[in-house]
Write a structure and sequence with these properties.
Blueprint (H helix, E strand, L loop, with lengths): L3 H16 L9 E5 L4 E4 L15 E4 L5 E3 L8 H10 L5 E5 L2 H6 L6 E2 L3 H7 L2 E2 L1 E2 L7 H10 L6 E4 L3 E6 L2 H27 L6 H11 L4
Parallel strand pairs: 8-9
Antiparallel strand pairs: 1-2, 1-5, 2-3, 3-4, 5-10, 6-7, 9-10
The structure holds zinc ion.
Zinc ion (ZN) binds next to loops.
């Protein structure tokens, strides 16, 4: 089997992300650079907890032609390819519908990263990519225009997120860091807008039970 090691690493990555709630059901997908020409990509519509290395597709980066794999590549392969073509130092790209950061995509604004450590991982600003339907060339084109060399995380309007890193581990860290920064952003917004309105106390209490830490 071609690139069996990298394909197994994609399986392990997806199991890890699924077990921690970043990949829910078949939502989300990942790509891992194999070499200068090839990438390993998750297949379309599969339960990541039952996926095997043979299910993971090997795709040519230049034209998205499938070279090996038992299934069809993810419909978002083009989106990952845009990122991996433009950022040669990036080796792993992760698209998720992770709950908190995905909720923030409804706000339609970029996320300004405030913590120094998080800035090192994500960049100073997480851009907001405009909405286009999933799995389309239109969305991949929108991503292409948004890619920046100093940003390792992107919000995709009304959809989910795209994170990347020079290794699997650093891409996972970007996913985790983005989720915690998104939570801080939501808490701050709730505190700013809700604390002067006593009639919202019940609602705020319920939100606090979910998000925690809102003063
Ligand atoms: Zn998606």
């Amino acid at each position: 089997m071609l690139a069996s090691n990298q394909r197994q690493r994609v399986v392990d990555l997806c199991v890890d992300l699924s077990q921690r709630g970043f990949l829910a059901g078949t939502g989300g997908n990942v790509a891992l650079r194999i070499d200068a020409e090839l990438i390993a990509v998750t297949p379309s519509a599969i339960d990541y907890l039952s996926m095997t290395a043979a299910d993971v597709c090997v795709v040519r980066l230049s034209d998205l032609e499938k070279v090996d794999g038992q299934r069809d590549p993810s419909v978002e392969t083009g989106l990952h390819a845009q990122l991996l073509r433009q950022r040669p130092e990036v080796n792993c790209s992760i698209h998720t519908h992770q709950p908190i950061a995905s909720a923030c995509t409804l706000l339609g604004k970029p996320l300004h990263v405030t913590e120094a450590k998080a800035r090192q991982r994500l960049g100073r600003r997480v851009p907001m990519i405009g909405y286009m339907p999933s799995g389309t060339g239109l969305l991949a084109g929108m991503v292409k225009r948004a890619i920046r060399s100093d940003s390792n995380a992107y919000l995709m309007r009304n959809h989910g997120v795209l994170c990347c890193g020079d290794s699997i581990e650093s891409a996972i860290e970007a996913v985790e860091t983005l989720e915690s920064q998104a939570l801080a952003w939501l808490r701050k917004g709730m505190s700013t807008h809700a604390h002067n309105h006593p009639e919202q106390a019940d609602t705020l209490q319920r939100v606090r039970a979910v998000l925690g830490g809102i003063s």
